[in-house]
């Protein structure tokens, strides 16, 4: 078999990888992308899209939407004068819809590859050696030569020692998306993004959900006001969230699973559940690259060591997404993919990690960008804050979504926006305005002087900007 040659080879077909490949091809480089993970492909063929499209971002949002409609039909319609019978969930049909969306989007990437003349190679990519000015990469049984290599192998769920994940009774994110029926009792270890989203899905559909979190503070990485508001709202909805828990022995039982843990007061507790979701973070998927063979540097946690432009210590080798420092977010990976392709082309591509937005797609949604109030206090930065609740917003009231707030933190001297934090309906969309503002180093006064359509949820962001200067108009 002859060795194929490319200008650019991307190892991994997730958000960072396929975007890097498409952008490199757009810039005129002969580009290939390899992927070996089949996920749930019925033919067992490798699928593009990575964790995000196959078993993460996309399928979870499909389930969140369906479960939200189910809950609205059962509890929200009556208040608006809509009379329906008691809703019933067809789990199989819900999963069928979710899978159809995944199939459509992952197949769409193949269409984008064809449109942009990217060669897709099925197989696991691993380094072999430096061959002159190129890299020899083994992809499955094939050898490929490439002048530039982009590592975009993503991440995998972090599992707890002693807890076997079978994705039937004990699940990670993959199994949590495919439960064949609504469990009567669902336990979740980890109150992060995945735990809260999956807990919300199955609670809405009728499960009794208990969330066990090791940390003492709820959503400790978010702004302190966000954590307090979210805990209050989620508890009111019915999520049983227990903080400061140290997990002990986890055993499968005849009826499900038994979890022993120590609570925040040091007392031993036992929780019985039909199903368990383990969502305690993710780890970089770099153990199959043969990095040691070529001297590609990994840190002690398995991340590829890169500079601010995602260049590794090896000539012509880059890494993006979940395998490098920074938040493990699909949109961050995409930005890095574009940056690397443009850097290969000699352009000044960049990815500003300080303006990468975070989103949790619960109801209400949670989104933020920039610094939290506790970070500013720790760093000794003088700031002013403007915070406005959605409860007084006409659109929020009309949508029966009065929960939450928008909060803007601005430098006390320059008024430059340092952070924006939103809990509320459509927060995932509203945060984009804040990202744009911060990318242009806008001041709170800039947002305050921009006309926002009425009635819209975005008016609360506008009012929060006015509140930084203590001059809100509707609160």
From TrEMBL:
Locations listed in the record: Cytoplasm
Domain (Pyridine nucleotide-disulphide oxidoreductase dimerisation): residue spans on this chain: 356-465
A GO-annotated cellular component: cytoplasm
Note: The active site is a redox-active disulfide bond.
Cofactor(s) listed in the protein's UniProt record: FAD
Note accompanying the cofactor annotation: Binds 1 FAD per subunit.
Protein name, UniProt field: Dihydrolipoyl dehydrogenase
Family classification: Belongs to the class-I pyridine nucleotide-disulfide oxidoreductase family.
Keywords, alphabetical: Cytoplasm, Disulfide bond, FAD, Flavoprotein, NAD, Nucleotide-binding, Oxidoreductase, Redox-active center
Protein's UniProt keywords contain Ribosomal protein: no
Binding positions for NAD(+) per the UniProt entry: 190-197, 213, 281
PROSITE patterns tied to this protein: PYRIDINE_REDOX_1
GO molecular function: dihydrolipoyl dehydrogenase (NADH) activity; flavin adenine dinucleotide binding
Gene Ontology biological-process annotations: 2-oxoglutarate metabolic process
Family annotation (InterPro entries): Class-I_Pyr_Nuc-Dis_Oxidored (IPR050151), FAD/NAD-bd_sf (IPR036188), FAD/NAD-binding_dom (IPR023753), FAD/NAD-linked_Rdtase_dimer_sf (IPR016156), Lipoamide_DH (IPR006258), Pyr_nuc-diS_OxRdtase (IPR001100), Pyr_nucl-diS_OxRdtase_dimer (IPR004099), Pyr_OxRdtase_I_AS (IPR012999)
Residues binding FAD, per UniProt: 61, 125, 153-155, 322, 328-331
Cysteines paired by S-S bonds: 52-57
Originating species: Pseudazoarcus pumilus
Location of the active site: 454 (proton acceptor)
One matching Pfam family: Pyr_redox_dim
Catalysed reaction, written as an equation: N(6)-[(R)-dihydrolipoyl]-L-lysyl-[protein] + NAD(+) = N(6)-[(R)-lipoyl]-L-lysyl-[protein] + NADH + H(+)
Domain spans labelled FAD/NAD(P)-binding: 6-337
Protein EC: 1.8.1.4
Recorded superkingdom: Bacteria
């Amino acid at each position: 078999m002859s060795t194929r040659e490319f200008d650019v080879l991307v190892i991994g077909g997730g958000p960072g990888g396929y975007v890097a490949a498409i952008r490199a091809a757009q810039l005129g480089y002969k580009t290939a992308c390899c992927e070996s993970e089949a996920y749930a492909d019925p033919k067992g063929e490798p699928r593009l899209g990575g964790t995000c499209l196959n078993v993460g971002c996309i399928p979870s949002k499909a389930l969140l939407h369906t479960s939200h409609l189910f809950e609205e039909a059962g509890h929200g319609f009556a208040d608006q004068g809509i009379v329906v019978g008691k809703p019933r969930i067809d789990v199989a049909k819900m999963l069928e819809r979710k899978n159809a969306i995944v199939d459509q989007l992952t197949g769409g990437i193949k269409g984008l590859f064809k449109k942009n003349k990217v060669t897709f190679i099925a197989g696991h990519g691993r380094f072999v050696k430096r061959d002159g000015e190129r890299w020899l990469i083994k992809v499955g049984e094939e050898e490929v030569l490439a002048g530039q290599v982009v590592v975009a192998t993503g991440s995998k769920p972090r599992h707890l020692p002693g807890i076997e994940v079978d994705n039937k009774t004990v699940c990670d994110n993959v199994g949590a998306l495919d439960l064949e029926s609504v469990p009567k009792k669902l336990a979740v270890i980890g109150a992060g993004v995945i735990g809260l989203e999956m807990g919300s899905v199955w609670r809405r559909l009728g499960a009794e959900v208990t969330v066990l979190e090791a940390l003492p503070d709820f959503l400790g990485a978010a702004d302190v006001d966000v954590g307090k508001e979210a805990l209050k709202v989620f508890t009111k909805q019915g999520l049983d969230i227990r903080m400061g828990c140290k997990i002990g022995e986890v055993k499968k039982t005849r009826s499900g699973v038994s979890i022993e843990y120590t609570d925040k007061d040091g007392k031993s507790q036992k929780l019985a559940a039909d199903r368990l979701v383990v969502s305690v973070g993710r780890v970089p998927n770099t153990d199959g690259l043969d990095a040691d063979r070529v001297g590609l540097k990994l840190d002690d946690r398995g991340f590829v060591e890169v500079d601010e432009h995602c260049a590794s210590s090896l000539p012509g080798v880059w890494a993006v997404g979940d395998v490098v420092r920074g938040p493990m977010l699909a949109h961050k990976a995409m930005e890095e993919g574009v940056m690397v392709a443009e850097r290969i082309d000699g352009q000044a591509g960049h990815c500003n990690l300080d303006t990468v937005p975070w989103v949790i797609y619960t109801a209400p949604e949670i989104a933020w960008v920039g610094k939290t109030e506790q970070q500013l206090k720790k760093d000794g930065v003088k700031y002013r804050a403007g915070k406005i609740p959605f409860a007084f917003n006409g659109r929020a009231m009309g949508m029966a979504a009065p929960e939450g707030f928008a909060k803007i933190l601005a430098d006390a001297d320059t008024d430059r926006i340092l952070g924006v934090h939103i809990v509320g309906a459509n927060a995932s969309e509203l945060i984009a305005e804040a990202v744009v503002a911060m990318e242009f180093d806008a001041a709170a006064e800039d947002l305050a002087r921009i006309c926002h359509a009425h009635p819209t949820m975005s008016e609360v962001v506008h009012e929060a900007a006015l509140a930084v200067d203590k001059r809100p108009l509707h609160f």
